[in-house]
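Reopening this one. Same input as before:
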Amino acid sequence: MARMTHRERVYATLRRQETDRPPLTFWQHAPGRDLAAASFAPVVIHFQREYDLDIVKITPSGSYQAIDYGVKTVLARNDLGTTQIVEFPVHGPADWARLPTLPLTWGAVGEQVETVRIVREAVGDTPVLQTVFGPLTVAARLVGNSLTREIMETPEFAAALEQIADDVARTGVAMLEAGADGIFYSSQHAHPATMPRDLFDRFGDPWDRHVLTRLREAGARILVAHAHGKGAYFDAALRWPVDCISWHDRETPPRLAEGAAQTIPFAGLDQNGPALHGAPDDVANEVRQSIAATGGRLILAPGCTYPLTVPAANLKALREAVDAV
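Same output, byte for byte:
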């Protein structure tokens, strides 16, 4: 069939229609440059021009939604380019009531809204997704990433979580209004290592569903749920109003073929696999295997962020491999 544009390919995949090849996207952090639009947007644009991806997935600092509440971070010493929290605003139940309403036109969130505007204008018709973290993930940042049962089962936390969920929804809507096609919605507390299932069902799932419904009603054309971590609560994400699910399919159930029978996978590439440790031929084999496992019904993407140490030659090999399908 005729060669499709990035937008045609992505939206045909979402409609479960035939495409010339599966869409491809991948992303990395930009440590030290990802909090200000003036420094971050050029990095995102350069990355897109370098690899010509079907979706521009913007990947800001994982704490950007918490900074305007009072969180302070420093760069972590790892090859992902992430940050670690060094100051946080909530130290006891009464602190939850002191959280400000999150601003959208200035501060850390405002910078990400502006990043979307700049990127949208630069990449033409290519679909753009901005990353937005779910309410529990944001709440965890406010206590230094340690949400305990004792903290969560207080009335002060419940009231604050409602406010945070509203701020998360408002953040997502602002990204859409700035030109994003949709939202990469990251729930980093939808797995047992960070949240027991009973607490997630009480405090995570209802607010995730609420936020995503608001984003859909606000006109989001692409909603991707990222179920982070091993043992992720994939069954919960299946019930959310999303188009695709992103998960670590090489590390945790369901396997890619099983997931493809239930949703459109935003998956198929191991962020710690061939691209990081292999050669271009290994990368091409991974692409072919994932396409074969799903019949090509997926958006090829890594389970999470690629480390900064992935060789550029292997990232280019990903692009070449999908073109060769």
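So the earlier flakiness isn't reproducible anymore. For the record, The chain has 13 helices and nine strands.
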